[in-house]
Write a structure and sequence with these properties.
alpha+beta; 2 domains; 3-stranded antiparallel β-sheet; 6 strands
Length: 151
Amino acid sequence: MKCPYCGATETKVVDKRETENIEATRRRRECLKCEKRFTTYERIENIELLVIKKNGVREQFDRQKLLKGILRCCIKRDISQDKIEKVVDYVENELRNKETTEIKSREIGDFVMKKLRRIDQVAYIRFASVYRDFADLEEFEKELKKLLKKK
């Protein structure tokens, strides 16, 4: 395992545990060179999932791309990396439990929004504004009103 801080390849595992859904093994590692700690996840490689974009183009599901998108919505919010990882785990598990390996991007967005709504409303609105591609303030306002009604 390569250290993300200094690039050294010598690390030691200081803690190991299964994730809640037992889909992955979480390892807390420490670099033997710079002594910084980082987390890695070991997952079974699953069947390739294809995402059908709005324009009909198909691309391979990218867990990291999903994670980056959610992280962008959570900037300057008090949401732990662990909670964000759980959202990504939830979405990926939902996709893998479907009978098909081709999933519309809209479904992925719906799964993310379902979880973000419960975790942090600001992150939810940020995600919704990009995901739903609000054309104007009126659409944005409608979404805010829906959110406030459900409170």
